[in-house]
């Protein structure tokens, strides 16, 4: 009878812990999500309602005037175009370099394979620093060029090692069968290896895209021309001084001069975050998939 009572007590305590744990996590999640919610709400608020002050949880009147203002600003469109170029071109180039390097290192017949792996491992442990990196970019003549935002971070040693693990898990018999059919190394990589590694490519592609889209510090170091600044530099200038970042000539009409600076800032933040938020749900399903699981299903 005593053991049964102990089991009941333990079961009850487990339930209390689970309920309290779930409640705590829900509250913590709401606290973390509230700043994003507040940014979204303020971006849709009317200038009159925002100037009334106080904590705004739900605007009475919704308006797109702040978004029309930001989208009519040439500096924002130009910065968004630069970030889009970095995200698309940089991600594709990084995936090609990372996947090809990882595939080559996964082949045991490659000469000097262990030395290259050691050098890649060293890059994951030691960082040369800001000044050596700047000097390298300067000597290569890439200062004030968008290539300075792509080439120095074209690949990651950690991503190469992880993707190499994906390629190691692919049976060698598939490659041997392809070679019997007349495929060379490049054909095997394109027709066999990459289709089986779509899940890893999607995951690493999202990581690269987010990194390129959020390019900030390297742009501060290497880019001097304001017309080549990415979106994060634009947002920094907007948060410091909205009139300087947006420019007076970008106004659609004189009525838009009365828009509060904070609503314009919130609208710009939402617009700069939206592209990544739209891409992420389509690639999230690939995170939990293994490369061989996908190949077996297909």
Automatic annotation (TrEMBL):
The keyword Membrane applies. It is a multi-pass membrane protein. GO terms for biological process: transmembrane transport. Residues 80-284 form the ABC transmembrane type-1 domain. The chain crosses the membrane at residues 21-40, 76-103, 115-137, 149-167, 188-213, 266-283. It holds the Pfam family BPD_transp_1. PROSITE patterns: ABC_TM1. It is found in: Cell membrane. InterPro entries: MetI-like, MetI-like_sf. Keywords: Cell membrane, Membrane, Transmembrane, Transmembrane helix, Transport. One of its GO terms (cellular component) is plasma membrane. Belongs to the binding-protein-dependent transport system permease family. This is ABC transporter permease subunit. The lineage of its organism: Bacteria, Bacillati, Bacillota, Bacilli, Bacillales.
């Amino acid at each position: 009878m005593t053991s049964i009572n102990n089991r009941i007590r333990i079961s009850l305590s487990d339930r209390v812990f689970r309920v309290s744990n779930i409640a705590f996590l829900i509250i913590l999640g709401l606290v973390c999500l509230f700043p994003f919610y507040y940014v979204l709400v303020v971006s849709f608020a009317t200038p009159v309602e925002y100037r009334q002050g106080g904590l705004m949880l739900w605007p009475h009147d919704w308006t797109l005037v702040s978004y029309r203002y930001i989208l009519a600003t040439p500096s924002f469109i130009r910065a968004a175009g630069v970030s889009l170029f970095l995200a698309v071109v940089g991600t594709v180039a990084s995936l090609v370099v990372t996947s090809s390097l990882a595939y080559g290192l996964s082949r045991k017949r490659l000469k000097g394979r262990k030395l290259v792996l050691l050098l890649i491992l060293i890059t994951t442990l030691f960082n040369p620093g800001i000044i050596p990196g700047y000097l390298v970019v300067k000597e290569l003549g890439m200062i004030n060029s968008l290539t300075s935002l792509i080439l120095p971070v074209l690949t990651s040693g950690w991503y190469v090692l992880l993707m190499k693990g994906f390629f190691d898990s692919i049976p060698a018999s598939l490659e041997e069968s392809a070679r019997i059919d007349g495929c060379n190394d490049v054909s095997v990589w394109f027709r066999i290896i990459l289709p089986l590694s779509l899940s890893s490519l999607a995951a690493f592609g999202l990581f690269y895209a987010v990194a390129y889209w959020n390019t900030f510090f390297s742009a501060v170091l290497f880019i001097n021309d304001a017309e080549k600044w990415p979106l994060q530099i634009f947002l920094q200038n907007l948060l410091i001084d909205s009139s300087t970042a947006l420019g007076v000539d970008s106004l659609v009409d004189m009525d838009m001069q009365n828009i509060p600076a904070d609503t314009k800032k919130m609208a710009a933040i939402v617009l700069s975050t939206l592209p990544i938020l739209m891409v992420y749900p389509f690639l999230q399903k690939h995170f939990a998939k293994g490369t061989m699981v996908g190949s077996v299903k297909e």
